[in-house]
Specification:
Layout: E1 15-17, E2 20-24, E3 26-30, E4 33-39, E5 50-60, E6 68-74, E7 77-85, E8 88-92, E9 97-100, E10 105-109, E11 114-119, E12 127-136, E13 147-151, E14 156-159, E15 162-171, E16 174-175, E17 184-191, E18 195-200, E19 206-213, E20 216-218, E21 221-223, E22 227-231, E23 237-242, E24 247-253, E25 261-263, E26 266-268, H1 271-282, H2 304-307
Antiparallel strand pairs: 1-2, 2-22, 3-4, 4-5, 5-12, 6-11, 7-10, 7-12, 8-9, 8-11, 10-13, 14-15, 15-16, 15-17, 17-24, 18-23, 19-22, 19-24, 20-21, 20-23, 25-26
The protein binds manganese (II) ion.
């Protein structure tokens, strides 16, 4: 998906809870959907390399257009599309065309530049529920060639009543085949009946957990949809308890240690890169996304004052 807002930061302050940080999402409008934006935070641009987390739905799209995100560009990141319910059609400037369903991963590596569109197909399922995640590319890999991957056979495991799917990186001995450029984990946990487990964590990783459906307790902190719990490094486990049917996400990785400059759909390091990418998009240099009925998204006006903020 895309953000239509130039400035994507959340402004809420973190609340300390048992040494962790609990923050609330803010709502944003993306492609006809209301999303709960959980990352980035003003004081936390990334968790591992995860730098953007939107959670949307479940929402009825029965008899309406549903998700309609027109063609737009990305640089410097991977988009991770993951559905809990429904279906979405992806098209990009490489010529990829891929329908995605729950349990499958669409992974688009923007590298030096790609454009894509995402929409509910003309004949679509009646409900839509999912997450749109971005992974920042480390400086050494930011200029890789753009690429698109679809994975329909991802590793699963069971942990204390949870059914666990690993869609990025590694968790509990299971490794996703998806291309990653940094040590990372992205996983969905579904409670099959009342569930309780100690999720094994990599001590070098920082993590966030959030609930997409139902409710859960993580180390005694109650979580519902629209809340993000951050856990710092040097942890070996997180105690997770959830009611039947609850669905949680665990994202983490080695702290990126690189200051990110995020503007619109670009992840960069300097204002000059943002300015150049905006000019390239306006001049049509990202390539065409075939098949989408409608105009591409225009870039928002550049805000030089915000673009120059150093080190934030
Ligand atoms: Mn996008």
């Amino acid at each position: 998906m895309s953000t239509v807002e130039a400035n994507v930061e959340i402004t809420q302050d973190a609340v300390l809870a048992h040494g962790a940080e609990l923050t609330a999402a803010r709502e944003a409008q993306v492609g006809g959907m209301t999303v709960r934006r959980l990352l980035p935070l003003r004081m936390r641009r990334s968790v591992g390399a995860w730098c953007f987390v939107d959670h949307y739905g479940p929402e009825s799209v029965d008899g309406v257009a549903g998700m309609q995100v027109p063609p737009h560009p990305h640089i410097g990141l991977q988009t991770v599309t993951w559905l809990l319910t429904g279906n979405v059609l992806h098209r990009d400037s490489l010529g990829s065309e891929q329908l995605i369903r729950p349990g499958q991963l669409n992974l688009m590596t923007a590298g030096r530049g790609i454009a894509h569109a995402e929409e509910s197909p003309a004949e679509h399922d009646p409900f839509l529920h999912g997450v749109q995640l971005w992974v920042a590319l480390p400086d050494a890999d930011r200029q890789v060639a753009p690429a698109f991957e679809h994975h329909s056979d991802l590793p699963h495991t069971a942990l204390g009543g949870f059914s666990v799917t690993v869609f990025m990186g590694e968790l509990a001995g299971e490794r996703s085949p998806a291309t990653a450029f940094t040590p990372i984990v992205g996983s969905e946990l579904t409670a099959i009946g009342p569930s309780r487990t100690d999720v094994p964590l990599h001590p070098d990783f920082e993590h966030v957990l959030f609930v997409a459906a139902g409710s859960a307790q993580v180390d005694g902190t109650q979580l519902g949809p629209g809340q993000l719990l951050y856990l710092g490094t040097s942890r070996e486990r997180a105690a997770v308890v959830a009611a039947n049917g609850s669905r949680l996400f665990l994202l983490g990785g080695v702290p990126l240690g690189e200051p990110l400059l995020m503007w619109w759909n670009f992840v960069a390091r300097t204002p000059e890169e943002i300015t150049a990418a905006t000019a390239d998009w306006s001049a049509g240099r990202f390539g065409d996304v075939g098949g989408y009925q409608g105009d591409p998204l225009p870039a928002p006006p550049l805000d030089a004052a915000r673009l120059r903020r150093p080190g934030r």
